[in-house]
């Protein structure tokens, strides 16, 4: 092995490339790999897949696209590490329609009894798929399909069952002394009795660590089904004494990961910081010095947070891809992952309008419709934009997201389109597909407003004037305000003027705001009125304040 060791924190950092994926692609090409180049990601299908898992798919996707663009054939493989053991019962599960449910709604007792077994040997708690593992792998597959990323899913359990791991398992066991020696540099619990194989008990089906003897000539591992420490709990073994073949169990993760690299011929794999500190250094060493294979080009990505908090299935701070796509176009979601993977970022549903605004700018920079801030912004848009859309189409139409949210306050599709046209957000000559695409964003922005109960989560009474009586002073104040709005002012100015007008006419400020909410929403409350009015079409607001229409 003559390859230099790559630092996963450095790969992809080169400042010579505008897009990080190109700098990773450079590192992959420097290895002179044979086509097809293989890019891998993977997770245990342990519970509700969320957007954090998408780092494993999207980071690989952009590198795959960069390499494809350079003429390479690329396979993007995603392993469901589904032979892993269920270590604890998750608090939340999701059915195949993404309904997240608590344990009370499934047979949680069955899950508890199955602790310690591989995910693929546990019944699907929803009863719709072959196993627990298959169920959550299906959700991951569905997520990738929704985003429109073509990933080849591979089941680890199937690789074992098909004998794909057998040769490398034998090699690890033949070299058990070296395996122990290498691993002991990274893990404390590795002593001379350590065996790098986890048999599956033929009696109870649990994965056990109580290996008593390895007979490689016979291809057998003898074991006692012993207790297993899993985090802060103990999974009890059944005490059975049995014999496993080399396919009747699995390699420990620290060996399994490098073994996957060998079996699948992996050239590049991105991973999170947990692996960067843990199984990457040992895996890289094991690949070179136990398996005699080259490890792939590595890259660390930063975890992102959700609303400023760590994503966590167990605490419920998660958002699924399905939920994200109710409020964002897939291309906007993909765009999120074009950003530098080394920077910690927050995904905020509450502020998703800013992400969409960034994307819209990225798109206009690509089409040369606005001046880029600098050469880097231009180069990044030129390179990455074609990878986030199916096909760049210059005559696409985007309604600004918060304006789309305003349009979402009315249910009438015709009215939405009328206002958007009147406000100049849909050009007269826009083709029908572009108009449809633009208006589809209104529905997403509407979902966003509902989900966050934000200032757009109101129903604008657009079609007819709500029934309302005002005293003379209030009526005069409304007329004044209408004149002010007709002059054309921004939201802040209108907000200030609402206070001033009320004062001038000796109308209680609270009651004056209530009059506005009555006229617009037939309600006593609503969004911050000045900025909101500024976002509506002026004609409508002026007429409404004058109680004319
Ligand atoms: Zn299922
Ligand atoms: Zn057992």
Automatic annotation (TrEMBL):
<keyword id="KW-0648">Protein biosynthesis</keyword>
<keyword id="KW-0963">Cytoplasm</keyword>
<dbReference type="GO" id="GO:0005737">
    <property type="term" value="C:cytoplasm"/>
</dbReference>
<feature type="short sequence motif" description="'HIGH' region">
    <location>
        <begin position="45"/>
        <end position="53"/>
    </location>
</feature>
<protein>
    <recommendedName>
        <fullName>Lysine--tRNA ligase</fullName>
        <ecNumber>6.1.1.6</ecNumber>
    </recommendedName>
</protein>
<dbReference type="InterPro" id="IPR001412">
    <property type="entry name" value="aa-tRNA-synth_I_CS"/>
</dbReference>
<dbReference type="GO" id="GO:0004824">
    <property type="term" value="F:lysine-tRNA ligase activity"/>
</dbReference>
<comment type="similarity">
    <text>Belongs to the class-I aminoacyl-tRNA synthetase family.</text>
</comment>
<dbReference type="InterPro" id="IPR002904">
    <property type="entry name" value="Lys-tRNA-ligase"/>
</dbReference>
<dbReference type="InterPro" id="IPR020751">
    <property type="entry name" value="aa-tRNA-synth_I_codon-bd_sub2"/>
</dbReference>
<keyword id="KW-0030">Aminoacyl-tRNA synthetase</keyword>
<keyword id="KW-0547">Nucleotide-binding</keyword>
<dbReference type="GO" id="GO:0000049">
    <property type="term" value="F:tRNA binding"/>
</dbReference>
<feature type="short sequence motif" description="'KMSKS' region">
    <location>
        <begin position="310"/>
        <end position="314"/>
    </location>
</feature>
<dbReference type="InterPro" id="IPR042078">
    <property type="entry name" value="Lys-tRNA-ligase_SC_fold"/>
</dbReference>
<keyword id="KW-0436">Ligase</keyword>
<dbReference type="GO" id="GO:0006430">
    <property type="term" value="P:lysyl-tRNA aminoacylation"/>
</dbReference>
<dbReference type="InterPro" id="IPR008925">
    <property type="entry name" value="aa_tRNA-synth_I_cd-bd_sf"/>
</dbReference>
<keyword id="KW-0067">ATP-binding</keyword>
<dbReference type="InterPro" id="IPR014729">
    <property type="entry name" value="Rossmann-like_a/b/a_fold"/>
</dbReference>
<dbReference type="Pfam" id="PF01921">
    <property type="entry name" value="tRNA-synt_1f"/>
</dbReference>
<dbReference type="GO" id="GO:0005524">
    <property type="term" value="F:ATP binding"/>
</dbReference>
